[in-house]
Amino acid sequence: MTAKTIVVGNFKGGVGKTKVSVMASWEYATLLNKKVLLVDMDPQGNASTLVARSAGIDAIDKTIFEGFRSEDLQSVVMNVTENLDLIPAAVSFKNFSKFLYSKFSNDLDQITYLKKLLEPLKANYDYIFIDVPPTISDYSDNAMMASDYVLIILQAQELSLEGAEKYISYLQFMADEYDADIQVLGVLPVLLRAGGRVDQSTVIRATELFGEDNVFKSVIKHLERLKAWDMTGIRNDDHHDRKAHQAFIDVVNEIEEKLERFELVGKYE
Predict the structure, then answer these.
(1) Which structural domains are found in the chain, ordered by start?
(2) pTM for this entry
């Protein structure tokens, strides 16, 4: 077993990256019984907070930055559920760039440190999801270099579409400059309003821009229950919860279909 590693990204903030990272990890672990590691590479630690709250964990006493400083990420892995583990982040991680520059003298070592430290963990998991800040930064560079695939989140608005374009352009830059071996898994639409005209037109434009096969048929619609989970943690108590879960179950099923196609293409290349 060698984990498929997926970074969830867009260079526009507030588009739903963290929620998709958490929920894809959660559905894989609880519904499909896959072994999953969620890596929080955002100093705000929102993914860590949501996962801990959902699992009834009151305190996070170890973080990814400690793992980077000790050269051992296994030591900061937190078990959340039977199949889900978390490497949490905290505000102290804002000093990541200073740490990298003091530790390494060349660019390649700086941007491949996460890849190096994740390698010993890959045999323990089916999937590793990485949540990153919406910035061109050492966080994004490390996540891209460590990942096999990127899932690009597209909130249905113009700035998010531009952020997705910039993300793909930057992926190409990383491939050209540093031989990053990463594939675009697809573009996942997150709608501001179900049935909204602007939302629909943005998805149509994304399809024209990226190609029909590259835009997910599944979409995450605007659901108030998702906001409620930020306060209560992830629940499955009523039909509103189940409706929200189903949206992400559909996404996970489509991720599986896309991964199977990538693997088939790889076999015949």
Answers:
(1) 4-268 (3.40.50.300)
(2) 0.94
